[in-house]
Amino acid sequence: MPFTLATWNINSVRLRQGLVSQLMSEEAPDVLCLQECKSPVDKIPFDVFQALGYTHMVARGQKGYNGVAILSKRPIEEVGSHAFAQLDHARHVAARLENGVTIHNFYVPAGGDEPDREKNIKFGQKLDYLTDMRDWAHAEKPEKSILVGDLNIAPREDDVWNHKQLLKVVSHTPVEVEHLAEAQDAGKWVDITRQDIPEGNLYSWWSYRSPDWDSADKGRRLDHIWATPDISNAGHSSRVLRHVRGWEKPSDHAPVFATFDL
Questions:
Q1: Residue 1's pLDDT is what?
Q2: Is residue 20 part of a domain?
Q3: Which of 111, 163, 210, 249 is deepest in the core (most CB within 10 A)?
Q4: Sheet strands (E) in the chain
Q5: Residue 256 — left, alpha, or beta (φ > 0 → left; ψ -120 to 50 → alpha)?
Q6: What's the rounded Cα separation, in Å, for the pair 177 and 152?
Q7: Cβ distance 136 to 130 under 8 Å?
Q8: Could you give the C-alpha distances from 199 to 111, 184, 196, in angstroms and in order?
Q9: Which CATH number goes with the domain that contains 255?
């Protein structure tokens, strides 16, 4: 039975619960994965989402920072979470659907502004987090799994508005791209979005610093949907809902969608 999945860095689920509700009402994904919820789990407005048919939730939260949640119309069971890079952050949670598919929702650290771990502890934490993701995938050998989230890296040249200008900008530096590729290869993860849309510039994030974000279009593809090889051929209909970035008081990220015939 097909199901549609979406991932969205919401940048405060309480501040933008109206936007979450709007997306649920207009697009109705079966599963919606949120990152940067910035809320303890008990403060997430679950009752609002329940009223819209999202009667199941697994989440990890903390006050004011980070936070991940999986909201689902279909029954899900929590299957745990990981705290990588020795960070006491709510950055990962996993849930299993009744069809046996496990969904991993990740929020990889942004990494600060300076791409030098000696000068910027946050950049070092980001690289360490990705290394731990790699080691976890090697150890667990995921199967029948989907990995989604704000991975805070745009790996391909056409995942950013200007490859050369961004080579020294956090989110597109060669060392980050290499670390992400190692994490991806460790789980044999297939990039479903690029499987569906193999060519052309594609972005999911546009900075708040650009008042004319739409016309300037200086975006980056930071949000991803991956799947293990045993189910990757079931993924299709990938899309980025760019127009959502233009909603009133939006997140700086747009939702990314895919459908799986499973």
A1: 84
A2: yes
A3: 111
A4: 2-9, 31-35, 56-60, 68-72, 76-80, 92-97, 102-107, 145-150, 190-191, 205-206, 219-220, 223-227, 235-240, 256-261
A5: beta
A6: 10
A7: no
A8: 28, 20, 9
A9: 3.60.10.10
**Vertex 236, ends 2 and 107: CA angle to 5°?**
90
Average pLDDT across each block of 10 residues of the chain; the chain has 262 residues. List them in order.
97 98 98 98 98 98 97 98 95 98 98 96 98 97 98 98 98 98 98 98 96 95 98 98 98 98 96
Q: Are 107 and 149 in contact (CB under 8 A)?
A: yes
Name the strands in the sheet holding 68-72, side by side, starting at the edge strand that comes first in the sequence: 56-60, 68-72, 31-35, 2-9, 256-261, 235-240
Name the domain count of the chain: 1
Cα–Cα nearest to 67, from 88, 48, 96, 95? 88
Domain membership of residue 173 (yes or no) is no
Q: Is residue 13 part of a domain?
A: yes
CA triplet 116, 117, 123: central angle to 5 degrees? Answer: 90
Structural contact between residues 180 and 147, judged by C-beta atoms closer than 8 angstroms: no
User: Which tokens is 170 given?
Assistant: 């956090």
Nearest 10 degrees: CA dihedral of 228, 233, 237, 243?
20
Q: Tokens for 229, please give them.
A: 């090889």
Which range marks the domain in which residue 229 is found? 2-80+90-107+147-161+188-261
Distance of alpha carbon 138 from the chain centroid: 21
- Whether 156 is in a domain gets the answer yes
Report helix, strand or coil for 188: coil
Tell me if 68 sits within 8 A of 93, measured CB to CB: yes
The structure tokens 């697994």 sit at: 58
Alpha-carbon distance of 125 to 128, in angstroms, equals: 5
Tokens at 159, concatenated: 């995942």
The SS3 call for residue 7 is strand
Supply 189's token pair.
Answer: 């993860």
